């Protein structure tokens, strides 16, 4: 079913074409490589250097402190707390995005009247600028004017908190906003993949008398494996480094201290404690943590490698 | 088969229930934005909240268009996002073509290495990026902003396009080359049309990256005439009197084009990601 | 052939372009102009073309981004540029938090704006590091004797002025007259925290309305921390700048907060300061801590028949068991001029500010938010044309309440309980960091013992702020 990419053999070959081909290939890749690395290499290098400095964010001077920033980070209980809070957020919001995205894709997979419309509706939250999305959710969940608490109280659902944007529950709101905004990314990837599963596979299963659930587990899921592995990876990385959503929802304090994730904590070191060196060191630590987790993930769940190096 | 009938009816009901649930989950916040944007201010803060305005008011929209620079922000955002999308598509397409059609060492590692760029939290890249942009004379410039977004969008774009190009059979290109076409012609006339859905999907992803960014637009752009929507709308929160109706109206004006757009393009989007997902 | 660097106009042009002060199009247009001139000059030997005029670009960041104020600033800038064709003023307005972020990026790149609004504690810090310049000439030219002494007091360090306040305001306790009458409460008789606590339950009809709305976002929690500590005779730092959070007045303040908490909306910890204003205006709260701009909220969100100072009253702030006089916050943000800018730019910025503070121009600015951006000139408060503005007339009691604080000298800038604390070099760092707010939340929302929470906050300030500040 998959077509393996091969080098395109140009007919009427000339001698030593191989190395010339390689150079042309590299040349074609160059613009993309330059555009990516020009704007990431310098910032990353700068941060590596800055992590060894003490620097007040509002002053131009720096002082070399060696590994002190890193030593202090590892001893700081607030740092470990933010790692924990950030992990809880990243894991739950990713899991629920995947769940909602897959469910949404299954709902929208087969055509029905109004299907195109509903597909559009299900995708648009992804396009709303975060500033607005978070604001609208703050408004929906507000304890004084919010419509959601009002509906919940009108329905007399027991155990509902008086205020959602409070210490005990703000994490739930954060996860809800994130799922709402970002699940369309999962939906579109999964839905697209579903559309390419050959119907014959289901026919065969049906002939065998498999229930819809069994069909999902035995036919659909294996087909979705690769796309889900990549989507989980990307969404996991993006949720772990997500800053704007927790920041705009909680502003790093008040009830927001319950959603002080690692990116928020890092931001606060740089921009509210004005410790630019410490902030850089923290972002390097975050990078290292992610790299470790991603490496483990890729070893544990290797995507079907279809491309082999020449 | 006969006993399956009631179950089928039940399944249909369930399916419609699920569709309705999905619709409410996605659309309710939008509904609330729309309704709020038409309410008179005191009604906005009424408790209990009203689900339908007692009186429809256009005040917020009038204010949005006549008293703020909303339209300027909108245009800037479209220009920056459009430029970003165009450049990402060009660089991404030839880059992905290279990754799938030429043989050289490290080819497979490249796409993965580029995904590493996502592991640095963007927030912390803000200051060094500003330093860089300033030294290149790219602050207060829409091009500078677009270049920043390109560096964020390209790795994923390259990844989708690469997967997509892999799924396009080589035979067609062979045929074109045998007919005497050169590589550029083959790419333009054979590969690109087949890759169109993938390119549309990439374009949309890229457009959204540029459309939604707040942080870099804030730092790289100072003057009001060049601000993008997220930064411009954010300023509404710092007015002497924060006008929730105005903010809701801005939200609606940003959202409705997105909604219409997605309803129109979802077909290509799904087809594009699907074919790309083949390899993914 | 010593290249373009020999021509100062080109050097300047390139520098401006690099700073992003010129758009690419203007840059290219001017480059074409000078380039032609340069070629001509090389040929004929040094003659300068008359057409290429040198233009000084001045970047000024302010923290008043609302449309009315922007329109006023724009009009003033346009009038100024008619008189000074050689100066281009780029006035950019943004929220306070956004400016702080932009300033950090700009400082890291060693390219601050020419001038900006800032806070008193930033003046202290920047002055100590030589990042800003004294502006005595500006203050004198505008008229030192015309300005409120308590405005000037915070700008003066060792006999020199380091900033020039753009407009001022003072924080007040706003209360609903109608709700007080309904509850049979007489707020004007309140003197102490105990008086207040006695009446809070009567003003609380939750969930219809709450007795008090307060913001839980760190920046605003900090405001209440120092206002209440100051009203309780305490301070946050000793003369050496060491934190005093475990002192009795602070502990009592935390205990007090815990009691007040019972009469606030349960979601207060996530409320923004603006939400507290709309809660008061819309009748969801009987009281809130407010500024003059709240008048705009009332016009927007309160029922038409209630938009007057008989309903929206000014109530007294009370003192704690260890205090003698209440303390309030003084919004006294000065314009400062950055030392790194070129001499031309700095001179042009001052020229513009002199123009800005001229009576007719300054009035336009103040009138853009009439009861919020109060004039720094004493004479205006005797001036019928200033006081006669319909908004100021309508909200006269609000104006009087603010002036009273200034006359009593009990309006202090952020985090300054005792005037000496203004000199604490890391005051600004503490103000921006969430340490004080975390302390309050630990006690009020998470039930931590005030002494333990205060001790932890002390340690954090010592380690994370003072320890770092001494190094960098």
Provide keyphrases for this structure.
heterotrimer, A: 310 residues, mainly alpha, 13 helices, 67% helix, globular, disordered N terminus, disordered C terminus, C: 472 residues, three-stranded mixed β-sheet, 21 helices
Description:
- The complex is a heterotrimer of chains A (310), B (280) and C (472).
- Chain A contains 13 helices and two strands; from the N terminus they run H-H-E-E-H-H-H-H-H-H-H-H-H-H-H.
- Chain A is mainly alpha-helical.
- Chain A starts with 16 loop residues before the first helix and ends in a 10-residue tail after the last helix.
- In chain B, 76% of the residues lie in helices and 0% in strands.
- Chain B has twelve helices and no strands.
- Chain B has helices at 4-37, 41-44, 59-67, 70-101, 107-115, 122-135, 142-166, 170-178, 183-212, 215-220, 229-236, 244-277.
- The model of chain B is unreliable at 276-280 (pLDDT under 50).
- By secondary structure, chain C is of the alpha+beta class.
- Chain C is globular, with a radius of gyration of 25 Å.
- Mean pLDDT of chain C is 88; it is low at 1-11 and 27-52.
- The chains are: A mainly alpha (310), B mainly alpha (280), C alpha+beta (472).
- Chains in contact: A-B, A-C, B-C.
- At the A-B interface, helix 1, helix 2, helix 4, helix 5 and helix 6 of A face helix 1, helix 4, helix 5, helix 6 and helix 7 of B.
């Amino acid at each position: 079913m998959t077509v393996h990419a091969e080098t395109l053999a140009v007919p009427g070959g000339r001698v030593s074409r191989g190395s010339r081909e390689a150079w042309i290939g590299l040349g074609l890749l160059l613009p993309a490589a330059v555009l990516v690395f020009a704007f990431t290499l310098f910032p990353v290098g700068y941060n590596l250097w800055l992590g060894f400095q003490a620097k007040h964010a509002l002053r131009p001077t720096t002082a070399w402190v060696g590994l002190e920033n890193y030593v202090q980070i590892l001893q700081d209980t607030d740092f470990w707390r933010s790692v924990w809070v950030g992990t809880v957020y990243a894991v739950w919001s990713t899991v629920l995005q995947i769940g909602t995205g897959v469910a949404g894709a299954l709902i929208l997979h087969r055509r029905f009247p109004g299907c195109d419309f509903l597909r559009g509706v299900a995708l648009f939250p992804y396009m709303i600028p975060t500033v607005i999305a978070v604001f609208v959710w703050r408004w929906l969940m507000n304890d004084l004017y919010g419509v959601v608490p009002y509906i919940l109280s009108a329905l007399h659902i027991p155990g509902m908190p008086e205020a959602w944007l409070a210490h005990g529950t703000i994490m739930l709101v954060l996860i809800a906003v994130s799922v709402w905004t970002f699940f369309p990314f999962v939906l579109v990837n999964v839905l697209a993949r579903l559309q390419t599963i050959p119907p014959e596979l289901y026919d065969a299963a049906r002939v065998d008398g498999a229930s819809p659930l069994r069909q999902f587990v035995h036919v659909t899921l294996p087909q979705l494996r690769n796309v889900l592995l990549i989507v989980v990876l990307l969404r996991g990385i993006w949720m772990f480094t997500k800053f704007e959503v927790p920041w705009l929802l909680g502003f790093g304090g008040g009830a927001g201290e319950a959603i002080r994730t690692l990116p928020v904590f890092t931001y606060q070191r740089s921009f509210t404690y004005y410790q630019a060196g410490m902030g850089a060191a923290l972002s390097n630590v975050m990078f290292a943590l992610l790299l470790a987790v991603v490496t483990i993930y890729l070893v544990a769940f290797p995507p079907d490698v279809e491309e082999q190096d020449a | 088969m006969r006993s399956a009938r009631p179950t089928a009816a039940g399944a249909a009901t369930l399916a419609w229930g699920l569709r309705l649930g999905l619709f409410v989950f996605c659309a309710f916040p939008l509904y609330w934005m729309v309704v709020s944007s038409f309410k008179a201010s005191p009604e906005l803060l009424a408790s209990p909240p009203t689900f339908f305005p007692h009186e429809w008011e256009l005040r917020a929209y009038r204010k949005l268009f006549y008293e703020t620079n909303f339209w300027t922000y909108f245009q800037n955002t479209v220009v920056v996002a459009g430029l970003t999308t165009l450049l990402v598509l060009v660089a991404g397409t030839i880059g992905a073509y290279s990754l799938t059609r030429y043989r050289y060492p490290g080819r497979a590692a490249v796409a993965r290495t580029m995904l590493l760029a996502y592991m640095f939290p963007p927030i912390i890249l803000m200051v060094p990026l500003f330093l860089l942009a300033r030294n290149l004379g790219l602050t207060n410039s829409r091009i500078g902003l677009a270049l920043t977004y390109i560096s964020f969008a390209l790795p994923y774009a390259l990844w989708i396009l690469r997967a997509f190009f892999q799924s396009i059979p080589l035979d067609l290109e062979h045929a074109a080359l045998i007919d005497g076409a050169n590589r550029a012609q083959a790419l333009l006339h054979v590969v690109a049309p087949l890759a169109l859905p993938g390119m549309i999907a990439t374009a949309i992803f890229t457009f959204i990256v540029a459309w939604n960014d707040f942080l870099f637009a804030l730092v790289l752009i100072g003057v009001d005439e060049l601000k993008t929507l997220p930064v411009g709308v954010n300023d509404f929160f710092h007015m002497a009197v924060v006008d929730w109706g105005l903010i809701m109206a801005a939200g609606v004006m940003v959202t409705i084009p997105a909604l219409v757009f997605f309803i129109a393009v979802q077909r290509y989007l799904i087809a594009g990601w699907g074919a790309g997902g083949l390899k993914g | 052939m010593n290249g373009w660097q020999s021509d100062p106009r080109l050097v300047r042009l390139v520098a401006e372009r690099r700073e992003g002060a010129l758009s690419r199009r203007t840059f290219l247009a001017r480059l074409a102009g000078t380039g032609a001139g340069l070629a001509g000059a090389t040929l004929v030997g040094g003659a300068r073309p008359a057409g290429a005029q040198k233009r000084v670009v001045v970047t000024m960041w302010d923290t008043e981004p609302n449309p009315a104020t922007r329109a006023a600033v724009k009009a003033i800038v346009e009038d100024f540029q008619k008189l000074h064709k050689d100066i281009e003023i780029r006035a950019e307005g943004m929220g306070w938090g956004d400016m702080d972020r932009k300033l950090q990026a700009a400082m890291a790149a060693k390219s601050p704006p020419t001038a900006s609004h800032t806070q008193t504690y930033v003046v202290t810090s920047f002055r100590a590091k030589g990042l800003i310049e004294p502006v005595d000439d500006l203050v004198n030219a505008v008229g030192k004797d015309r300005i409120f002494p308590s405005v000037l007091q915070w700008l003066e360090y060792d006999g020199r002025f380091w900033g020039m306040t753009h407009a001022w305001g003072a924080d007040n306790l706003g209360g609903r007259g109608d709700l007080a009458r309904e509850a049979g409460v007489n707020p004007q008789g309140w003197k102490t925290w105990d008086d207040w606590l006695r009446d809070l339950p009567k003003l609380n009809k939750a969930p219809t309305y709450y007795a008090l709305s307060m913001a839980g976002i760190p920046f605003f929690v900090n405001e209440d921390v120092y206002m209440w500590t100051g009203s309780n005779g305490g301070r946050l730092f000793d003369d050496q700048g060491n934190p005093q959070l475990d002192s009795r007045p602070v502990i009592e303040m935390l205990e007090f907060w815990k009691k007040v908490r019972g009469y606030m909306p349960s979601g207060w910890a996530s409320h923004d300061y603006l939400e507290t204003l709309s809660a008061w205006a819309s009748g969801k709260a009987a009281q809130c801590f407010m500024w003059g701009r709240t008048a705009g909220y009332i016009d927007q969100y309160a029922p038409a028949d209630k938009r007057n100072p008989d309903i929206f009253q000014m109530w007294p702030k009370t003192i704690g068991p260890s205090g003698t006089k209440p303390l309030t916050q003084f919004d006294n943000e000065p314009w400062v001029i950055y030392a790194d800018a070129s001499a031309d730019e700095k001179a042009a910025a001052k020229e513009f500010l002199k123009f800005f503070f001229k009576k007719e121009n300054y009035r336009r600015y103040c009138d853009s938010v009439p009861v919020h951006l109060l004039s720094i000139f004493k004479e205006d408060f005797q001036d019928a044309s200033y006081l006669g503005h319909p908004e100021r007339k309508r909200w006269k009691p609000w104006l009087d309440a603010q002036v009273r604080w200034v006359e009593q000298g009990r309006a202090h800038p952020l985090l300054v309980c005792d005037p000496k604390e203004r000199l604490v070099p890391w005051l600004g760092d503490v103000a921006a960091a969430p340490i004080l707010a975390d302390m309050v939340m630990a006690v009020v929302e998470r039930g931590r013992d005030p002494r333990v929470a205060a001790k932890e906050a002390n340690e954090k300030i010592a380690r994370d702020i003072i320890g770092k500040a001494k190094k960098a």
